[in-house]
Design brief:
Helix content is 38%, strand content 17%. The chain is built from 12 helices and 16 strands. The two termini are 25 Å apart. Bound molecules: pyridoxal-5'-phosphate. The site of pyridoxal-5'-phosphate has 14 residues, from helix 3 and helix 4.
């Protein structure tokens, strides 16, 4: 089977994780702290707060910013549901906006028409590892005094004009799920340059607790969103390899682009000028005549694991039931949801595998049309 994704776990991770397991100190400790320091250094941000998942990072960010019931938060319709779910979880309303079908990112020209006196924040998602149009989004956020939470779950190391995704808004969120460029099994990180937001997120991660005059003081009704120390050990080792992994992923994406460029049934990923795409997912868009789900099934039968790009939120029962979104309301997002196809991409993928993916994809498309 040519796998969709494969985490890169080496001997060093196994050795350090074993050390932590042997030590008996399993919960958040010095390895988590070391991972946080390495992430902060890599991104050149003041504060990094490790948490149990990317979803936890987003949830804490909204809470740290004080987003609450009655507020509205703008986000792209085409994203993993966690982006919108956390908005609902704090009692605010997710305001969905269509995407640009070339980049799969929120269309900034459609943001302003959705701003109301209740709008408090915008969550650009750097979808599949490519920066959203962050300058336009920050300009709108500045004009209407909105907070910006970057959902950089898929985009650690991605750049816009040389600036790292996740460091450009008020707060940035990352995921270390095994399909991401580096992994801690499950895991996430909140990053910010604001001392106040960092302190609140740090307290909320640990039951709302802060240290006041040398004592534990419960300042908020918080969560247990801590990362374990053996995950922290994986994290600080993994991040040392990140740039090398990104270069390999970019090279593989170029090989796919070259192999697929003449297939008129497929739109290959588009890297916008000034962006450094890290290809957390290599996602192509199939022509409307092609039945994408059949392609996924037939490729699996032929030993190739593929999947959909991601979800359109307005098509999901929760969003329809609770916010009256209607089927097909966002044209580009609906098209991407139906026609996007994510191909295998991981650093163990060989050129011969990429060629096999292309050959079988072409064969499957021709047979299915
Ligand atoms: C855009 C986006 N946001 C948030 C998440 C949630 O991250 P996690 O699975 O670590 O909770 C994901 C997960 O894939 C994602 O793709």
């Amino acid at each position: 089977m040519i796998r969709l994704a494969r985490p890169q776990i080496g001997q060093e991770e196994i050795k350090e994780v074993s050390k932590v397991l042997g030590s008996g100190f399993l919960v958040q400790g010095k390895n988590v702290e070391k991972f946080e320091t390495k992430v902060a250094e890599y991104l050149k941000v003041k504060y990094a707060i490790a948490v149990s998942s990317g979803t936890a990072a987003l949830h804490l960010s909204l809470m740290a910013l004080g987003i609450k019931e009655g507020d509205e938060v703008i986000l792209p319709d085409f994203t993993f549901p966690a982006t919108g779910n956390v908005v609902a979880l704090v009692g605010a309303k997710p305001i969905l906006v269509d995407i640009d079908l070339k980049t799969y990112n929120i269309d900034p020209t459609k943001i302003e028409e959705n701003i109301t006196p209740q709008t408090k924040a915008v969550i650009p998602v750097h979808e599949f590892g490519q920066a959203a149009d962050i300058d336009s989004i920050l300009a709108i956020a500045g004009k209407y005094d909105l907070s910006t939470i970057e959902d950089a779950a898929c985009a650690l190391g991605a750049e816009s004009k040389g600036r790292k995704c996740g460091t450009l808004g008020d707060i940035g969120c990352f995921s270390f799920h095994p399909r991401k460029a580096i992994t801690t099994g499950e895991g996430g990180m909140v990053v910010t340059n604001s001392k106040q937001l960092a302190e609140k997120a740090r307290a909320l991660r640990n039951h709302g607790m802060a240290i006041k005059e040398g004592r534990n003081s419960f300042e908020y009704a918080g969560f247990n969103y801590r990362m374990t120390d053996f995950q922290g050990a994986m994290g600080w080792i993994q991040i040392k390899k990140l740039d090398e992994i990104i270069e390999k992923r970019r090279a593989l994406a170029s090989s796919y682009n070259a192999l697929l460029k003449d297939l008129k049934e497929i739109q290959t990923p588009f890297e916008k000028a000034g962006n450094k795409h890290i290809y957390q997912s290599y996602v192509v868009l199939l022509n409307k005549q092609i039945k994408r789900d059949n392609i996924i099934r037939k490729l699996r039968e032929r030993g190739i694991e593929t999947t959909i790009g991601t979800y359109c939120l307005h098509c999901q029962p929760f969003y329809r039931k609770n916010y009256s979104y209607r089927d097909g309301q966002f044209k580009n997002s609906s098209t991407a949801f139906k026609q996007s196809l994510c191909l295998p991409l991981h650093i163990k993928l060989k050129p011969v595998d990429a060629r096999k993916v292309k050959d079988l994809l072409l064969k499957t498309i021709c047979m299915g049309m």
